Amino acid sequence: MGIAHKWNDFMWQKIKPYRSSIILLSALMLGGLIGILFPVFALKLKPLGQIFLNLLFMIIVPLVAISVTSSIAHMTDLKKLGAILATIFLVSIIMAIIPTLGIIGLASIYDPAQGVTLDLHQGVSTGSGDMDFVNLLTTNDFVGLLSKSNILALIIMSVISGIAIGQSGKEGEKVSAMLDSLNTVIMKIVSILMLVAPVGLGAYFASTMASQDTELLSTFARAIGLFLIAAALYYTLGSTLYAWLGGGINGVKQFWRNAIEPSATALGTSSSLASLPVNIRAANKMGIKEEIADICLPLLVNLNKGGAAMTTALKIVFIYSILGLDFTADVFALTVLISVLSAFVIGGVPGGAFLGEIFIVTTLGLPIEVIPILVIIGAVTDAPATVINVIHDLNATQIIERINGKRYAKSKVLDTKANT
């Protein structure tokens, strides 16, 4: 009995990090089955799902504005570090763009939808013609920022506001403290809404699948399989390249000697934050300067999310394919932008459940019926995406040390002499 009890505890600890994803995926699978087997009943469930999605839409503007502004305000507390902070931002952006372009290229060669089309019984014209990037990036008055349709403009203004707060001294600290309190309340609201997420999304997915061909389900497997292949290639080849850029052949050797433990932790916890202590220890074993690792890794946890960028890009390409929309040059550019922002800003918003999905739908003008589909892809790919996020934080730290190591060491010596 004791052995059985210990085994149960062991298994529970293993699956606990995935509990919410397992529940959500189970609800979506059940909803899909109900939609296929009992379509008339499933269509009656749509208002239930619509209520849940409307509740998310109602909270999305304050969630983005407060969370992003608060996060950026804290980051600019390190503005005295100047060059090293700028390098962290630059490396994070580049390491989000590379996997985004890679997954778009693979998805273009091997279309995961394979001609299967999602029939929503409504015209969808997004992706055709020229996109108005002026209206996507800005609004002509403040009231426009309060609409979920202008979420991209809201993020840009939130980033600018966060920088301004961080540079406003003591007065800015007062505003930052207030934003922290508001952020805590917003996150609590989100956690309350998430209690009914399995029911709401399950109901909505049931109504979506009620009139669809069962072959649509096979497209999920192809999309996820494509992601796993891309993730494996990027994990091995990408990490090796980054390690070489950060430290040459010796950097590659040191990286792979110490990469397994952070990778296993990320896979087991599905959390970049939970993997941070292991990542810091691995960085120390690799010989990275402790002061560099202590500065870079905590920031990179929120900023450097190449796995999240890959997932976002795959979602967009996949949805455009199953909706039968043209993936134009404008859509391509916007996909890269959304993917980078998802990794760079949205990925750093704590508890921002479904924020990425809503960001995609509202920015591209897609029908909200696709949100459960995006959630499925995101939930299944979460663990491998987290592994990439975590392990490439080490690579980014290697590169940042190579770029700024001597300069930082010199400034530290000068500061020490000035203090003495």
TrEMBL record:
Keywords: Cell membrane, Membrane, Transmembrane, Transmembrane helix, Transport. It comes from the Bacteria. It is found in: Cell membrane. GO terms for molecular function: symporter activity. This is Sodium:dicarboxylate symporter. It is a multi-pass membrane protein. It holds the Pfam family SDF. One of its GO terms (biological process) is dicarboxylic acid transport. Its main location: membrane. The chain crosses the membrane at residues 21-42, 48-69, 81-110, 142-165, 185-207, 219-245, 317-346, 358-380. GO terms for cellular component: plasma membrane. InterPro entries: Na-dicarboxylate_symporter, Na:dicarbo_symporter_sf. SUPFAM superfamilies: Proton glutamate symport protein (SSF118215).
